[in-house]
Amino acid sequence: MNDEQLLRYSRHILLDELGVDGQQRLLDAHVLIMGAGGLGCPAALYLASAGVGTITVADHDVVDLTNLQRQIAHDMTTVGLPKVESVQRRVRLINPDVKLLPLPEKLAGQPLLDAVAAADVVLDCSDRFATRHEVNRACVALGKPLVSGAAVRLDGQLSVFDVRRADSPCYACLYPDTTDFEEDRCATLGVFAPLVGIIGTMQAAEVIKLLVGFGEPLTGRLLTLDARSMAVMTLAIKRQPDCAVCGGRHALAGAAGAATDA
Protein backbone atom coordinates (compact mmCIF):
# COMPACT_ATOMS: atom_id res chain seq x y z
CA MET A 1 0.00 0.00 0.00
CA ASN A 2 1.13 3.52 -0.72
CA ASP A 3 0.91 6.43 1.74
CA GLU A 4 -2.46 7.59 0.43
CA GLN A 5 -3.93 4.12 0.85
CA LEU A 6 -2.50 3.81 4.36
CA LEU A 7 -4.31 7.04 5.23
CA ARG A 8 -7.54 6.12 3.40
CA TYR A 9 -7.82 2.75 5.14
CA SER A 10 -6.32 3.84 8.48
CA ARG A 11 -9.53 3.18 10.44
CA HIS A 12 -9.52 -0.40 9.20
CA ILE A 13 -5.81 -0.81 9.83
CA LEU A 14 -6.33 0.22 13.46
CA LEU A 15 -8.59 -2.80 14.00
CA ASP A 16 -6.81 -5.87 15.37
CA GLU A 17 -9.06 -8.05 13.22
CA LEU A 18 -7.85 -6.41 9.98
CA GLY A 19 -4.58 -4.50 10.24
CA VAL A 20 -2.31 -3.99 7.25
CA ASP A 21 -2.44 -7.64 6.19
CA GLY A 22 -6.23 -7.77 6.28
CA GLN A 23 -6.56 -4.56 4.30
CA GLN A 24 -4.16 -5.92 1.71
CA ARG A 25 -6.35 -9.01 1.37
CA LEU A 26 -9.28 -6.74 0.57
CA LEU A 27 -7.26 -4.83 -2.01
CA ASP A 28 -6.29 -8.13 -3.66
CA ALA A 29 -9.83 -9.58 -3.59
CA HIS A 30 -12.45 -9.95 -6.32
CA VAL A 31 -16.16 -9.96 -5.45
CA LEU A 32 -19.13 -10.67 -7.73
CA ILE A 33 -22.41 -8.87 -6.98
CA MET A 34 -25.51 -10.27 -8.66
CA GLY A 35 -27.93 -7.36 -8.87
CA ALA A 36 -27.49 -3.58 -8.68
CA GLY A 37 -30.74 -2.77 -6.92
CA GLY A 38 -31.74 -2.16 -3.33
CA LEU A 39 -29.31 -4.69 -1.87
CA GLY A 40 -26.55 -4.50 -4.46
CA CYS A 41 -26.19 -0.71 -4.24
CA PRO A 42 -25.25 -0.44 -0.54
CA ALA A 43 -23.20 -3.63 -0.74
CA ALA A 44 -21.19 -2.27 -3.67
CA LEU A 45 -20.66 1.14 -2.07
CA TYR A 46 -19.46 -0.27 1.25
CA LEU A 47 -17.20 -2.85 -0.38
CA ALA A 48 -15.71 -0.13 -2.59
CA SER A 49 -15.26 2.19 0.38
CA ALA A 50 -13.60 -0.65 2.29
CA GLY A 51 -11.09 -1.17 -0.52
CA VAL A 52 -12.14 -4.43 -2.17
CA GLY A 53 -9.89 -4.21 -5.20
CA THR A 54 -12.11 -5.68 -7.94
CA ILE A 55 -15.90 -5.71 -7.93
CA THR A 56 -17.94 -7.21 -10.76
CA VAL A 57 -21.58 -6.09 -10.80
CA ALA A 58 -24.08 -7.92 -13.01
CA ASP A 59 -27.52 -6.51 -13.78
CA HIS A 60 -29.42 -6.21 -17.07
CA ASP A 61 -31.82 -3.49 -15.89
CA VAL A 62 -31.76 0.30 -16.30
CA VAL A 63 -32.34 2.95 -13.64
CA ASP A 64 -35.87 4.34 -13.39
CA LEU A 65 -37.52 6.83 -11.06
CA THR A 66 -39.06 4.17 -8.79
CA ASN A 67 -35.56 2.87 -7.97
CA LEU A 68 -34.44 6.11 -6.33
CA GLN A 69 -36.56 5.51 -3.22
CA ARG A 70 -34.01 2.94 -2.02
CA GLN A 71 -31.24 2.16 -4.55
CA ILE A 72 -28.68 4.59 -3.19
CA ALA A 73 -25.98 4.24 -5.86
CA HIS A 74 -28.33 5.80 -8.45
CA ASP A 75 -29.58 9.37 -8.78
CA MET A 76 -31.54 11.64 -11.12
CA THR A 77 -28.57 12.03 -13.45
CA THR A 78 -28.41 8.28 -14.12
CA VAL A 79 -32.11 7.59 -14.77
CA GLY A 80 -32.28 5.68 -18.05
CA LEU A 81 -28.71 4.38 -17.83
CA PRO A 82 -27.81 0.75 -17.18
CA LYS A 83 -27.71 0.19 -13.44
CA VAL A 84 -24.20 -1.26 -13.59
CA GLU A 85 -22.95 1.91 -15.31
CA SER A 86 -24.62 4.02 -12.64
CA VAL A 87 -22.90 2.01 -9.89
CA GLN A 88 -19.60 2.26 -11.71
CA ARG A 89 -19.87 6.08 -11.82
CA ARG A 90 -20.59 6.29 -8.11
CA VAL A 91 -17.77 3.91 -7.17
CA ARG A 92 -15.29 5.95 -9.21
CA LEU A 93 -16.20 9.01 -7.15
CA ILE A 94 -15.83 7.15 -3.85
CA ASN A 95 -12.65 5.17 -4.39
CA PRO A 96 -10.38 5.28 -7.45
CA ASP A 97 -8.45 2.28 -6.06
CA VAL A 98 -11.35 0.00 -6.97
CA LYS A 99 -11.75 -1.63 -10.37
CA LEU A 100 -15.48 -2.01 -10.98
CA LEU A 101 -16.37 -4.33 -13.85
CA PRO A 102 -19.93 -3.73 -15.11
CA LEU A 103 -21.82 -6.60 -16.73
CA PRO A 104 -25.06 -5.16 -18.22
CA GLU A 105 -26.58 -8.56 -18.86
CA LYS A 106 -28.68 -11.25 -17.28
CA LEU A 107 -25.96 -13.73 -16.35
CA ALA A 108 -26.78 -17.39 -16.87
CA GLY A 109 -25.14 -20.55 -18.14
CA GLN A 110 -21.44 -20.43 -18.99
CA PRO A 111 -21.07 -16.63 -18.55
CA LEU A 112 -22.38 -17.01 -15.00
CA LEU A 113 -19.98 -19.86 -14.30
CA ASP A 114 -17.10 -17.79 -15.66
CA ALA A 115 -18.02 -14.80 -13.48
CA VAL A 116 -18.35 -16.96 -10.36
CA ALA A 117 -15.05 -18.70 -11.09
CA ALA A 118 -13.25 -15.35 -11.25
CA ALA A 119 -14.57 -14.19 -7.86
CA ASP A 120 -13.45 -14.94 -4.32
CA VAL A 121 -16.93 -14.36 -2.86
CA VAL A 122 -20.35 -14.01 -4.53
CA LEU A 123 -23.19 -11.81 -3.29
CA ASP A 124 -26.73 -12.72 -4.29
CA CYS A 125 -28.61 -9.42 -4.38
CA SER A 126 -31.19 -10.59 -6.93
CA ASP A 127 -34.95 -10.73 -6.51
CA ARG A 128 -35.91 -13.95 -8.30
CA PHE A 129 -35.79 -17.51 -7.01
CA ALA A 130 -34.69 -18.83 -10.42
CA THR A 131 -31.64 -16.55 -10.37
CA ARG A 132 -30.87 -17.38 -6.75
CA HIS A 133 -30.91 -21.10 -7.49
CA GLU A 134 -28.71 -20.79 -10.57
CA VAL A 135 -26.19 -18.68 -8.66
CA ASN A 136 -26.24 -21.20 -5.82
CA ARG A 137 -25.59 -24.11 -8.20
CA ALA A 138 -22.64 -22.27 -9.72
CA CYS A 139 -21.18 -21.50 -6.28
CA VAL A 140 -21.53 -25.12 -5.16
CA ALA A 141 -19.98 -26.44 -8.37
CA LEU A 142 -17.01 -24.07 -8.10
CA GLY A 143 -16.58 -24.09 -4.31
CA LYS A 144 -17.27 -20.36 -3.85
CA PRO A 145 -18.83 -18.83 -0.73
CA LEU A 146 -22.22 -17.21 -1.32
CA VAL A 147 -23.62 -14.33 0.75
CA SER A 148 -27.37 -14.23 0.19
CA GLY A 149 -29.70 -11.40 1.18
CA ALA A 150 -33.37 -10.65 0.61
CA ALA A 151 -35.83 -7.93 1.57
CA VAL A 152 -39.50 -7.34 0.81
CA ARG A 153 -42.14 -5.25 2.57
CA LEU A 154 -40.64 -4.86 6.06
CA ASP A 155 -38.96 -8.26 6.33
CA GLY A 156 -35.33 -9.04 5.56
CA GLN A 157 -33.08 -12.06 5.76
CA LEU A 158 -29.40 -12.86 5.39
CA SER A 159 -27.25 -16.00 5.33
CA VAL A 160 -23.88 -17.30 4.18
CA PHE A 161 -23.57 -20.56 2.25
CA ASP A 162 -19.95 -21.69 2.16
CA VAL A 163 -19.48 -25.15 0.68
CA ARG A 164 -15.77 -25.04 1.55
CA ARG A 165 -17.04 -26.07 5.00
CA ALA A 166 -18.24 -29.66 5.18
CA ASP A 167 -21.08 -28.75 7.54
CA SER A 168 -22.42 -25.81 5.52
CA PRO A 169 -25.79 -26.04 3.80
CA CYS A 170 -26.33 -24.46 0.42
CA TYR A 171 -29.23 -22.21 -0.58
CA ALA A 172 -31.15 -25.21 -1.94
CA CYS A 173 -30.96 -26.91 1.47
CA LEU A 174 -33.03 -24.00 2.80
CA TYR A 175 -35.22 -23.45 -0.26
CA PRO A 176 -35.24 -26.56 -2.50
CA ASP A 177 -35.51 -25.58 -6.14
CA THR A 178 -38.19 -28.22 -6.65
CA THR A 179 -40.51 -26.23 -4.36
CA ASP A 180 -43.06 -23.97 -6.00
CA PHE A 181 -42.34 -20.71 -4.18
CA GLU A 182 -44.33 -17.62 -4.98
CA GLU A 183 -42.11 -14.75 -6.09
CA ASP A 184 -42.27 -11.91 -3.55
CA ARG A 185 -41.07 -8.85 -5.44
CA CYS A 186 -40.97 -5.28 -4.20
CA ALA A 187 -42.45 -4.06 -7.51
CA THR A 188 -45.80 -5.52 -6.49
CA LEU A 189 -45.54 -5.79 -2.69
CA GLY A 190 -43.49 -2.73 -1.77
CA VAL A 191 -40.35 -2.50 0.33
CA PHE A 192 -39.24 -0.29 3.25
CA ALA A 193 -36.36 1.81 1.92
CA PRO A 194 -33.97 1.59 4.92
CA LEU A 195 -34.45 -2.18 5.12
CA VAL A 196 -32.59 -2.90 1.89
CA GLY A 197 -29.78 -0.65 3.11
CA ILE A 198 -29.53 -2.60 6.36
CA ILE A 199 -29.47 -6.01 4.67
CA GLY A 200 -27.16 -4.92 1.84
CA THR A 201 -24.71 -3.40 4.32
CA MET A 202 -24.79 -6.57 6.39
CA GLN A 203 -23.99 -8.54 3.24
CA ALA A 204 -20.93 -6.34 2.75
CA ALA A 205 -19.88 -7.01 6.35
CA GLU A 206 -20.13 -10.77 5.85
CA VAL A 207 -18.08 -10.53 2.65
CA ILE A 208 -15.30 -8.61 4.40
CA LYS A 209 -15.21 -11.18 7.21
CA LEU A 210 -14.89 -13.99 4.67
CA LEU A 211 -12.18 -12.26 2.67
CA VAL A 212 -10.05 -11.29 5.67
CA GLY A 213 -10.79 -14.40 7.72
CA PHE A 214 -12.01 -13.10 11.07
CA GLY A 215 -15.10 -13.44 13.21
CA GLU A 216 -17.86 -15.97 12.65
CA PRO A 217 -19.76 -15.60 9.36
CA LEU A 218 -23.45 -16.49 9.18
CA THR A 219 -22.61 -19.89 7.70
CA GLY A 220 -25.29 -22.38 8.68
CA ARG A 221 -27.45 -19.63 10.17
CA LEU A 222 -30.33 -17.56 8.82
CA LEU A 223 -30.69 -14.04 10.22
CA THR A 224 -34.15 -12.52 9.91
CA LEU A 225 -35.08 -8.90 10.58
CA ASP A 226 -38.59 -7.53 11.18
CA ALA A 227 -38.25 -3.78 10.62
CA ARG A 228 -41.61 -3.13 12.31
CA SER A 229 -40.09 -3.87 15.71
CA MET A 230 -36.40 -4.22 14.75
CA ALA A 231 -36.62 -7.77 16.06
CA VAL A 232 -33.69 -9.91 14.93
CA MET A 233 -33.74 -13.71 15.02
CA THR A 234 -31.00 -16.14 14.05
CA LEU A 235 -32.07 -19.65 13.11
CA ALA A 236 -29.83 -22.66 12.55
CA ILE A 237 -29.88 -24.15 9.03
CA LYS A 238 -28.80 -27.74 8.65
CA ARG A 239 -27.15 -29.19 5.60
CA GLN A 240 -29.45 -31.67 3.87
CA PRO A 241 -27.46 -34.81 2.91
CA ASP A 242 -29.96 -35.59 0.16
CA CYS A 243 -29.91 -32.05 -1.28
CA ALA A 244 -30.10 -32.24 -5.08
CA VAL A 245 -27.48 -29.49 -5.40
CA CYS A 246 -24.87 -30.08 -2.69
CA GLY A 247 -25.65 -33.56 -1.39
CA GLY A 248 -22.65 -35.24 -3.03
CA ARG A 249 -19.99 -32.68 -2.39
CA HIS A 250 -17.87 -34.47 0.26
CA ALA A 251 -14.78 -34.46 -1.94
CA LEU A 252 -15.16 -30.77 -2.74
CA ALA A 253 -15.56 -29.75 0.90
CA GLY A 254 -12.57 -31.80 1.96
CA ALA A 255 -10.32 -30.40 -0.73
CA ALA A 256 -11.28 -26.79 -0.14
CA GLY A 257 -11.73 -26.79 3.63
CA ALA A 258 -8.29 -25.35 4.25
CA ALA A 259 -9.20 -22.21 2.30
CA THR A 260 -11.93 -20.95 4.63
CA ASP A 261 -10.00 -17.79 5.43
CA ALA A 262 -10.19 -16.78 1.70
Quick structural summary:
The chain has helices at residues 3-8, 10-13, 19-28, 40-50, 83-94, 109-118, 129-142, 171-174, 186-189, 193-212, 250-256, and strands spanning 30-34, 54-58, 99-103, 121-124, 146-152, 155-161, 221-226, 231-236.
Please state the structural category: alpha/beta
Shape: globular
For the record, the CATH class is Alpha Beta
Radius of gyration over C-alpha positions, nearest whole angstrom: 18 Å
- Helix percent reads 25-40%
Total number of beta strands: 8
- Termini separation comes to 20 Å
Low-pLDDT stretches: 250-262
Average of per-residue pLDDT values: 92
The CATH homology group name:
NAD(P)-binding Rossmann-like Domain
Share of β-strand residues: 15-25%
Major pleated sheet: 8 strands, mixed
Q: What's the tally of helices?
A: 11
- Whole-number total of structural domains: 1
> What is the CATH topology classification name?
Rossmann fold
Please state how the strands of the largest beta sheet are arranged side by side.
Answer: 3-2-1-4-5-6-7-8
Helix and strand run = HHHEHEHEHEHEEHHHEEH
Architecture, according to CATH? 3-Layer(aba) Sandwich
